[in-house]
Amino acid sequence: MNRQDRPVDLRSDTVTLPTPAMRRAMSEAEVGDDVFGEDPTVNALEARAAEISGKEAALYVPSGTMGNQIAIAVHTSPGQEVVCEEHSHIMLYEMGTIARFSGCLTRPIPTDDGRLTWERIRGNIRGPSDHYGGTGLIEVENTHNYAGGRVYALDTLCEIKTNASDAGIPVHMDGARVFHAAAALDIPLRSIADTAESLTFCLSKGLGAPVGSLLTGSRSFIAESRRVRKALGGGMRQAGVLAAAGLVALEQSPANIPAVHADARFLADSLADIPGIAIEPATVETNIVFFDITGTGLSNQHFLGSLREEGVLALSLGPGRIRMVTHQDLERADCERAIAAIERACGVPALAG
Ligand code: TLP
């Protein structure tokens, strides 16, 4: 299919297809039974993930959800509270697994932009008592999906980590898109990873791999995580065919992120010029662009339907709220096509010539 006929898929950065280099690596991967720890390609991926994130060890898991939920189960005991931001993925989009599997409650904290501070967390920490289970974990999401890909400043994370350590509470980072955070701050990933006891990051979100995420942490944390992964049915066998693509993603895809961020900025700046669309371009820091179409008078369904007819796909995430995510399978011309389709949906007259 040539580019003009292909849909411009901005629903998520999960829609990317494996690159030719990934497919080659997959077909040539050396494999073994990973439940026995004998898949050399999975072992290589885990070693590389640990190295990149500056942690002792890593575990390959099928999804970001499983990585987060294993971390929560290992860090907490049933009845404890997990402090998190009110729109965090672990709370809104992980099927209530915190309650189902770990027996924990969330203690959601409202923020203006998805970013917690120690100031906001402090009053929500509860020690164990005869009346409640106490705080078992603090979770931060970086970048924050629902807040539009916002990036934590390193100082904020360091302050949370230092105070959490003093209170004896571990920090888990849902870093599904932590490579985007590192690129936005132009710092090594491990500086961000240092601010949490454990980190989940995704190979299939923005890095182009077909499947998989990594959970990283101390050797003992990962040993226990391996047992919990098995309990969740996440023990895979000859998973090296998938891990091989992940290794390629880790080496090759981060270099694409600056251009992907520039595409998001282009979308945000262009959207700001369309009458009826509300967006603050300065809040777009990475590859996620949220905007509000209430002022156009169109329903989400009508708006997305018009775009779909022109081969442009986006997501509805709340009344009037639309999300577009840029990724490495798109080019600037695709983003221009998306903007032209949005202008037509909103009744902006086309320029002559
Ligand atoms: N997010 C998906 C949807 O679930 C919304 C997306 O398209 O953005 N943490 C964060 C911050 C995420 O954004 C996601 C996926 C996950 C965890 C879960 O990853 P998977 O889908 O691999 O379980």
What does this structure look like?
This protein is α/β, with parallel strands linked by helices and 353 residues long. It has 2 domains: 8-15 and 256-345, Alpha-Beta Complex (Aspartate Aminotransferase, domain 1); 20-253, Type I PLP-dependent aspartate aminotransferase-like (Major domain) (Aspartate Aminotransferase, domain 2). Helix content is 40%, strand content 15%. It has 14 helices and 12 strands. It has a 7-stranded mixed β-sheet, with helices on both faces. A hairpin with a 4-residue loop joins strand 11 and strand 12 (321-325). Helix 1 runs antiparallel to helix 11 (240-252), helix 2 (40-53) runs parallel beside helix 11 and helix 3 packs across helix 10. The model has no long low-confidence stretch (mean pLDDT 96). Ligand TLP binds at residues 12, 14, 63-65, 89, 93, 141, 145, 174, 176, 202, 213. Residues 12, 14, 63-65, 89, 93, 141, 145, 174, 176, 202, 213 line the site of ligand TLP.
| CATH architecture title of the largest domain | 3-Layer(aba) Sandwich
List ligands, each type once.
ligand TLP
Distance between the termini: 28 Å
Mean pLDDT equals 96
Radius of gyration: 21 Å
Number of H/I helices: 14
Strand arrangement across the biggest beta sheet: 2-8-7-6-5-3-4
Strand and helix order: EHHEHEHHEHEHEHHEEHHHEHEEEH
CATH topology of the largest domain: Aspartate Aminotransferase, domain 2
Shape: globular
- Residue share in β-strands: 15-25%
* Weakly predicted, low-confidence segments: none
What is the fourth-level CATH superfamily of the largest domain? Answer: Type I PLP-dependent aspartate aminotransferase-like (Major domain)
> Would you state the CATH class of the largest domain?
Alpha Beta
Largest sheet: 7 strands, mixed
